[in-house]
Write a structure and sequence with these properties.
By secondary structure, this protein is an alpha+beta fold. The protein contains ten helices and 22 strands.
Length: 417
């Protein structure tokens, strides 16, 4: 793939009118199951258009790749390589598969006109088991072919006629065409996807003996045959493979503009930060900020998103708090929140409320906000209250919140490892 054909953008950054027209961005939006329209671009208070998604838009001649906020400064767009493209797609695919496995449904904020999730399920099977059991045969009764006497004697009914033993039915060997068809579908899906999108996906393979048949044009026939094959499959792993193949052919588009993107990347950022904390977090120093290990050292106890109910509101509705990343270790508790922002300009009142309502759970509470940056990871003081404004004189009453800027690429790489 010629990288010159790829237009680069960053979520939240300005998009020019020529790009809007070339990729029809003003006509594209996500209409999710809640009937909410999420536009691909938004206008700021000055009338400038900004990207409002992370991912790809494919046209016949060019590709638009939009990276997460602060992934790269505008003046370095020309330095984007295939590594960056593969990293971006790998993150989107992993998050979508994670969401699907945990919620048993597609993420409303994820949109794809190409079934990458199904493809990765098929490829995972290929890596582990190879091409699906091609050229297998089955033993059937009353069919043409060489008689299998051992199976006939063991399985058939026996009758006496004129002093002779009659076996019915006679068992013969017959090729299982459905299994051969599944293997051909599998080879086509892997080869086709690798050929079309090998420049952005991390898992590819090419075959020289792909069946000369238009699987996409005749996808209704293909899906019907795969459903028949599923009825003849008995192992769950094989059924899952066929389900992924069916999903692939049901979802793939014949032509037109292609989309592969996420409209609410703050959810992805939160999940990635959680993984990063659980692998690299060391401690918080209230004079310097959050400290990370130089190498991966997974925590024995993990950060998680848990709920607290500190009170009740109108109509007897419970008031719930859900810090993004919470951990209690000994006498310390850590209350962290992910902030998918280009920058933080204002005081984060929500984090202050977390501290005020949860501080009595531990002797000392550490607070931090995690923001993406293209720079090396660094800390910046968000707020440190003067003593007269603290809620008491004990250590548990002293409020300090850090802005911790995490290098986006490091967080993304850790996520897909």
């Amino acid at each position: 793939m010629d990288l010159k054909r790829i237009k680069i953008g960053v979520d939240g950054e300005t998009v020019d009118l020529s790009t809007i027209r070339e990729f029809n961005l003003d006509y594209i939006d996500n209409v999710n199951s809640k009937s909410r329209h999420i536009p691909a671009i938004k206008q700021d208070s000055y009338g400038n258009y900004k990207y409002n998604f992370v991912g790809y838009v494919f046209s016949k001649n060019k590709i638009l790749a939009v990276f997460p906020k602060n992934y790269i400064p505008v003046y370095e767009y020309s330095n984007i390589t295939q590594f960056d493209l593969t990293l971006l797609s790998s993150v989107l695919i992993k998050y979508n598969r994670y969401y699907l496995s945990n919620n048993k449904s597609q993420d409303d904020n994820f949109e794809s006109t190409f079934p990458f999730t199904a493809y990765y399920g098929i490829f995972d099977y290929f890596i582990k088991y190879g091409i699906y059991s091609a050229n297998k045969s089955v033993v059937v009764g009353n069919s043409n072919g060489k008689i299998l006497w051992k199976d006939t004697i063991q399985k058939s009914n026996q009758y006496i006629s004129n002093g002779n033993i009659i076996f019915s039915p006679l068992y013969t060997k017959k090729n299982n065409n459905y299994e051969n068809f599944v293997s051909e579908c599998m080879k086509f899906v892997i080869h086709y996807t690798s050929t079309q999108y090998g420049f952005i996906i991390s898992k590819t393979h090419y075959f020289k003996d792909v069946l000369n048949f238009d699987f996409i044009l005749h996808r209704d026939y293909v899906i019907n045959e795969l459903n028949k094959a599923k009825l003849n499959s008995f192992k769950d792993i094989h059924k899952q493979l066929i389900d992924n193949l069916i999903d692939f052919f049901r979802s793939i588009k014949l032509a037109g503009q292609g989309l592969f993107r996420h409209y609410k990347f703050n959810h992805v950022w939160e999940d990635m930060v959680g993984h990063y904390l659980n692998n690299y977090f060391q401690q918080v120093d209230n004079n310097h900020g959050v400290i990370f290990n130089a190498h991966k050292e997974p925590l024995a106890r993990k950060f998680s998103k848990i709920g607290f109910t500190p009170g009740i509101g109108s109509n007897n509705q419970y008031i719930n708090l859900y810090p993004d990343h919470y951990l209690q270790l000994g006498d310390n508790q850590y209350i962290f929140d992910s902030k998918y922002y280009s920058k933080i300009d204002n005081l984060d009142h929500k984090q202050m409320v977390y501290f005020m309502l949860l501080r009595h759970r531990s002797n000392q509470t550490f607070n931090a906000l995690f923001i993406p940056t293209f720079k090396s990871t660094y800390n910046e003081l968000h707020i440190k209250l003067f003593d007269e404004f603290n809620l008491g004189k004990g250590e548990s009453d002293k409020l300090v919140i850090w802005n911790t800027y995490l290098n986006v690429i490091s967080v993304m790489k850790n996520y897909i490892e």
